[in-house]
Amino acid sequence: MKQQLEAIRAAALEAILAADDAEGLDALRVKYLGKKGELTAVLKQMGGLSAEERPVMGQLANSVRADLEKAVEEQSAILAEKALQRRLVEEAVDVTIPGKKAEVGHKHPMYVALDELKEIFIGMGFTILDGPEVELAVNNFDRLNAEEGHPSRDWSDTFYFDTDSRVMLRSQTSPMQVRAMDTMELPIRIVAPGRVYRKDEVDATHSPMFHQVEGMVIDKGVTMADLKGTLNTVVRKLYGENTVTRFRPHHFPFTEPSCEMDVQCHKCGGVGCPTCKGEGWIELLGAGMIHPRVLEMSGIDPTVYTGWAFGMGLERMAMRRFKIADLRLIFENDVRFLSQF
Ligand code: DAH
């Protein structure tokens, strides 16, 4: 039995020292020290020994077990250290390699212009409204005094969803006037930017989708002088203190009187040049005093309240603000273009 134990010790120690991974080492532990291992098998024969031999063999067996356990523990530590070293090499990070640059985007120039505009109006006490692009023809036309048969309702100009022309992509932001009158308490001071849609072919100045900014004020004693004063203030904040404007008579179904506001051409100072097509002026927006019928249709008494409204093209405003020559550049989102702003 003594030889058996010594043989186990020698073989086991050799195998343990040669183990080169954790699983292999564990298999050896089971093989020699486990419940069904070789050492246990030898100890089971102890019963057949004489009373003198038993303690001697017992002691030897214990010392073999202790040696093997210690060897397993030491080898396990060595393997763990080796594994760590291997990971440190494999997962090493070369901090001298240049980093990957994360490209950060920025606001689209048109939204830069819109945010400037909003800031100015918010500073004047206006509320910014947002509304649906799919709109009822009632709000887009009827309640704005453009009745059945009005040319702007034509199928060749408007995207309708149904054959009886009741639901449409809004052709202007003016229905936001109706929505504001329906939902807000008087007095009302709102600005409503958003997308609008018309059946236009794409060219340097047209797109079937573009943006407008609607504005409206309703209060007691509001006059055309307030309209002119407010719009002049806004335009000078946007384009500079010395900006010259003019108001021309015009016609819109929902305002009376109606006007258009022009700014003097920044390029030629009003003499006439290609930028202003020889006119000296650039059209900026439509505006006017809200038609009494429009107020009445919204349940507002036009003998007590008056109001004014305006609608401007946002692309045109941004093009002027950033001196962009072609409308298509605003929608194409070519990074070479956008990165200039
Ligand atoms: N909605 C008009 C258009 O698309 C612009 C407009 C003109 C809006 C006069 C107004 C206004 O609020 O008072 O051409």
Structural features, described:
It is a single chain. The chain is α+β, with helices and mostly antiparallel strands and about 350 residues long. The protein folds into 2 domains: about 1-90; about 110-340, BirA Bifunctional Protein, domain 2, CATH 3.30.930. Helices cover about 40% and strands about 20% of the residues. The chain contains 12 helices and 9 strands. It has helices spanning about 1-20, 20-35, 40-45, 55-90, 110-125, 135-140, 175-185, 225-240, 290-295, 315-320, 330, 335-340, and strands at about 125-130, 135, 165-170, 190-195, 210-220, 245-250, 255-265, 280-290, 305-315. The strands form 2 sheets. A 7-stranded mixed beta sheet has the order 1-4-5-9-8-7-6, sandwiched between helices. Helix 1 (about 1-20) packs antiparallel against helix 2, helix 1 (about 1-20) packs parallel to helix 4 (about 55-90) and helix 2 (about 20-35) packs antiparallel against helix 4 (about 55-90). The model has no long low-confidence stretch (mean pLDDT about 90). 3,4-dihydroxyphenylalanine (DAH) binds near residues 174, 214 and 310. 3,4-dihydroxyphenylalanine binds near residues 214, 252 and 288.
